[in-house]
Amino acid sequence: MTPDGPAAARFTSATHRDRINRAAAAAAERGVEALLITPSPDYAYLLGYQAPAMERLTCLVVPADGVPTLVLPRLEEPLARHGLGELADDVELIAWDEAEDPIQVVKARLGTALRVALQDQMWARFALRLHAALDPAQLVEAGPTMSALRAVKSPEEVERLRAAAAAADEAMTAISRERLSGRTEAAVSARIRELLLEAGHETAGFAIVASGPNSASPHHTAGERVIEGGDAIVLDLGGTRAGYCSDTSRTAFVGEPPAEFAALFGVLQQAQRAACDAVRPGVPAADIDGVARGIIDDAGFGAAFIHRTGHGIGMETHEEPYLVSTNRAPLVAGHAFSVEPGIYIDGTWGARIEDIVICTESGGERLNTTSTDLVIVD
Q: What is the reported pLDDT for 9?
């Protein structure tokens, strides 16, 4: 087993025990009597392994007071015991047989609970049946509990994000040194995925290569367009390493950029840098968005900045907290998020700069450490 393999992605049983206890306490503070967590990043966060999501119900029941129970298909029990390790001593496993109704098994574990929180990504086939079976219990979202816990990263989680960011920087640097003109977007995207894996990622989740007029589409899917001289190219790449995500964007230009694009990019770079510098505990997430947006607005590109400034990152590429004008929640030390303003001129060109930033007690720390300057490529 290599250091970056599945075993390395696990935290200690004590860590997962603490996470379960904190989830139970947070649920109690909301007046929630139990959390129901199906296979998802929340499930892996609590238990330390990922169960397959399938038509057979697997459900972790975390009571606000009491022993957590894992209800699962009998054929999944060996995987669960292996995945839980020492944590199996703290979680009661109830394996159900093919002829049993797992919804009724979960109902029995909940007893008379009247306020139950469902994991946000629970399949409708389970959520609807639970709603009917648990009536008159009130079903609410588990998100406010789980997102709050996961949003604040531990020092070990920060180190995993740091390692993922360094690997992503390595891949970005490598592709920026290659000749891009004459190649299709799809070919460059495939090459980036190779570079991510070579740099230590376990998965290469995405590799946006948006050239020429396609660079004005923030989530463009790389296609058969051939990159040529005079193209702006938005490069946005990321994946997972030791269970944690990377995500970074840089903008390249094939040849010498015209003055108009250079000016646009200068505004973007100023906005991204200022937003990173504004990060500190207590600052509302909306204010970071406002810093970047204000600079872009003042330069006359406000209508061309068509997305929020950033998103949280951790076990998922997009999670809490979100840097958007409607989020007045204050940043706290341990929050991890992207800072990625963009300017997109429809039909012409676009540009984006993205770094992952950790909010620390003394301010923001960029985990992506490569230059944010416009990359000139052949």
A: 67
